What does this fold into?
Amino acid sequence: MPATDVLGLHDVVAPQDIEFDAIDTALDNGLETSADAATTVDFTPELDPVTGCLLNGTAMPEGTLLITEFMFHPLSSPTAEWFEVANRSNVAIPLGGMSFVTQGPSAAEEAYLVPGCDAFVVPALGTVVFAREADGIGSLPASSWVYGDHELGDTGGSLGLRFGSHWVDKVAWKEGDPAWGPLSNYDGKAVSLDPAKFSRAGNDPGSAWCPAVEAMANGDYGSPGTPNPECLVTE
Ligand SMILES: [Ca+2]
It folds into this structure.
């Protein structure tokens, strides 16, 4: 049964100034289907005129929003975890009303609802970074928020973005999966999606990802908020 808890999220960089509590919601599971779009996605958001929330998130073409990088085993600090979400459309998309769902190797899924609609906006063709703590990764980009105490499993887990019962994107990693290779490859290194695999199904297999190579200020490796380099070795 999905866990439910309360989180405080904080904007960590001006000019946005957000501070609020979010109540997680337990949402129904959906099924992920395939897509192979690797180019800019056409999407026209329909927004609630009062709240500014996205109304037609379930109608987003596959691959509009993608999880493109995540850090599940930082060495600088156990809580210096983060993940990056890319918007591959030509329009800004508010994330309010969507939920991020995390799962450890053996734990139940935990969902947290992205609250508000005017603040949590992924810029057109831009990225946002969600960090577990404000000062843990040393180089938080301008579009970033802190989500609090949700753990990305070191020996396996999953991370997804869900809108209602619809999985917008989801990635799962597991020790022992040949496509992922030894997860120790990612000790202190973010899991970086190969730019050639930027599609909803393209980022499913472990072979689409590789250890980040760009040094961060905290000694770990990753490119939060900046384009991912090409994976030099993919299977
Ligand atoms: Ca990146």
